[in-house]
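Running low. Got one?
___
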Amino acid sequence: MRNWIFIASVLLAACLALLPASGVKGHTTPDSQVTLHIHDRRIVADVIIPASEYGYATGNLDANDEGSLKSARAYIAAHASIADRSGEEWDERIDNLRFATVSGPKDLLATITFTAPGDAVDEAITLSWSPVLEQTPDHFATVLVQREGSGEAPELAGLLRQGDTQIEIPRGRSGFSIRFGSAMRLGIEHIMGGLDHLAFLLVLLLAAPLVAKNGRWQGLRNHRGSIRALVILATGFTIGHSLTLVGVVLSGATLPGSVVEPAIAATVLITAVHAVRPIFARRELVVAIVFGLIHGLGFAGFVQQTEAQVGRSMATLAGFNIGIEVIQVALIVLFVPVLLWLERKALYRPVRLALASLVGAMSVYWIVSRIGLIPG
């Protein structure tokens, strides 16, 4: 009982320390989205920018009064353009500019019409897009392309972020390798921006070298046993999230984020507690698969919200999933040597408890913010 009181006290104290820290973010939906509707001599861009990110980047108000909208219009015009291969910029007109709530938090919405300056139109154009990106390193913009009259769904063209704010858009359909690569990069960007997924994997692996006896962690596996346990856990998580990612996206099912997001945070909390004291010892594989299924719902929801071709093709969906796996494998490759070295040292126990307590505290914060008890 004393151990549980100690664990709860540590988690509560750390959580209270983290409550004011708005930078402790977990899984998020796409930051900005630009959908390009390609016509013969014009391109119409539907723009979605989170109002909170816009306000942070500019210091401007997210209001619909004349002065605020004038500032927003000038900001977008200065940070968005389309040019042909000669470098000549297309004419630009911004319409339907407003701050509105479509679903979730308030967004800055706009329609930008780009018109070719001459009669000839190149086979490819370059979009330059830097609203919010220049001021916010972890913000990114998803660029989609809808070729009018083609009957095709919107296609994922790529991602833009700080230091990479230009993308070439072919007027015809992109090749398979470009679509696959864009989907893979989307997976990488998503998992890198999803601290909750990374935190879950960290604490899941943290207890892999340990052996449970009488309801406590009381021993260590040998190196071979630790590596085997790590591989089994990572494989179980991969199987779980891959099944729900593919199943939900291809079936077209919709699941409310108000349920999925707190559930993901709860898996992080349970796993963090397990890293302190065993609560599902010798059932780690089953738990990794089940929790992977829950995290896969978050991945699927992200793909569905992009409204891109990545969710309608097994090949590009596989590219997105492979992008997720790339980051997971990279984390394991970096973490395992440190873990194997640390597990035989006296520091292992305090480091394990400290990391598990910190992750547990963040997960409590995510849970209460995602169910609306405090601002997220």
Notes: Residues 32-174 form one domain. The mean pLDDT is 82. The longest helix spans residues 223-251.
